[in-house]
Amino acid sequence: MVLKDRGKKGWGRFFRSFKYASRGLIYVLLKEQNMQLHTAFAVFVVVIAFLLRIPLLHLVILVVVIAGVLALEIVNTAIERTVDLVTNEYHPLAERAKDISAAAVFVFSIAAVVIGILIFYGPVLSLFTK
Ligand SMILES: Nc1ncnc2c1ncn2[C@@H]1O[C@H](COP(=O)(O)OP(=O)(O)OP(=O)(O)O)[C@@H](O)[C@H]1O
């Protein structure tokens, strides 16, 4: 078992933490279908935002909201894996923990959709009324 960094400080530890985080990100991107869908949609939204030349502040809001959805999806995956570590059998508490964790992504995703509509409504409408 490799837990050599536990309790250590310094630049080596700092840069290794990037390696661990990148490994986690790549894992979630490769293994989680929801993460792939969110990422594909996020890329699409950012491309459209640039094409429609939305204001910088709206672009910043979009980036924060997209990062929020992706970060919550990553935490949700971590909770799922932790629950699986505790039990692979059916357990009502495992079910509850996973459902609640998924609910966090759900709530933020709904907010993201509402924010997206508010930001894109004007620019898209003006495309058709020109
Ligand atoms: N050990 C368990 N006991 C009871 N219910 C579970 C258990 N594991 C999963 N579930 C139920 O199945 C749902 C889906 O869980 P699952 O772990 O398959 O998540 P997922 O979103 O499909 O992610 P992934 O495909 O990455 O595993 C959970 O929200 C929960 O309701």
UniProtKB/TrEMBL annotation:
Note describing how the cofactor binds: Mn(2+), Zn(2+), Cd(2+) and Co(2+) support activity to lesser extents.
Cross-referenced Pfam families: DAGK_prokar
Protein name as annotated: Undecaprenol kinase
GO CC list: plasma membrane
Annotated source species: Alteribacillus bidgolensis
GO MF annotation terms: ATP binding; kinase activity; metal ion binding
UniProt-listed PANTHER family: DIACYLGLYCEROL KINASE
Chain residues that bind substrate: 13, 73
Family in the record: Belongs to the bacterial diacylglycerol kinase family.
